[in-house]
Amino acid sequence: MALSGAGPEGRECGSDDFIKLCNPNLSRMKEDILYHFSLSTSTHDLPAMFGDVKFVCVGGSPSRMKAFITYVASELGLGRPGEDYPNICSGTDRYVMFKVGPVLSVSHGIGIPSIAIMLHELLKLLYHARCSGVTVIRIGTSGGIGLEPGSVVITQQAVDARFKPEFEQMVLGKQVVRTTDLDAQLVQELVRCSADLDEFPTVVGNTMCTLDFYEGQGRLDGALCCYTEQDKQEYLRAAHAAGVCNIEMESSVFAAMCSACGLPAAVVCVTLLDRLQGDQICSPHEVLVAYQQRPQRLVSHFIKQRLTKA
Ligand code: R2B
Ligand code: URA
After folding, report:
1. Residue 254 in contact with residue 224, Cβ under 8 Å?
2. Domains of the chain
3. pTM to 2 decimal places
4. Along the chain (310 residues), what's the average pLDDT of each consecutive run of 10 residues?
5. What angle do CA 114, 117, 119 make, to 5 degrees?
6. For residue 275, which atom of ligand 2 is closest to its CA?
7. Pocket residue to mutate for ligand 1, from 110, 208, 267, most atoms within 8 A of Cβ
């Protein structure tokens, strides 16, 4: 199906740094209610609240995104030690959002539908706020393929369960296919930041985005399973041969939506286990917490470097 009526609605500012929304209906709306954020263009001054945002970091867990903003604030020397950052979306319990200086941290929950809804409203928020030069990064967890647990994967291409760099969605009962391009320069910049830090193994590779954590990722330990250990191994090895280094549940729609709106985007995920060795996540809690800090450490170093060079 062709993407009809999808002429980019970017601002005519002589710069392509602005958010391009592919929806001509928006300009005809008097008010835009960002329902799942509990924010609206008529009740909130979005340009005043968010106009200076340059880095948006998104991740599944609300507490991780709060920990991230606290960490970034201390790394950038913004805010006071021990400061408690308020949740900008406190009027709803769907997502959380925190801001310090030019950094916005937003949770997205688990899976494509959850992150897609959040991204529709986030991209509109950035548009209404007239933000420019924004970079978006997903910091998350994943299952690795043939990697030491705790390794960080910077995604080259987000691929689907057939290893294709595509995101398919049903629109008006028909399949719409969008590409899942990510920013190649951003990948290289992040690789350099990880080399500077030299604190954990980091690789660049493809990330497979699935619709499920259990059967969708070839696990043998779900409530249902209709294949053998050998089938699982064959599938994961085929994924690996296609360049897949890790598996998670949001990268494809994240890449597709950011790219359609002209935003440079990256996906940085830590691997919690090696899926060739097992399915259950059995490392101690403290080890998992330390692993989840790795993408945060890498991305806050990246932000610091970008701000120092600006
Ligand atoms: C990684 O971890 C979550 C599932 O446990 C999911 O949000 C993802 O992409
Ligand atoms: N998140 C996933 O989606 N899969 C894993 O195996 C681990 C974390």
Report:
1. no
2. 2-309 (3.40.50.1580)
3. 0.95
4. 39 62 95 98 98 98 98 93 94 98 98 98 98 98 98 98 98 98 97 98 98 98 98 98 98 98 98 98 98 98 95
5. 105
6. 6
7. 110
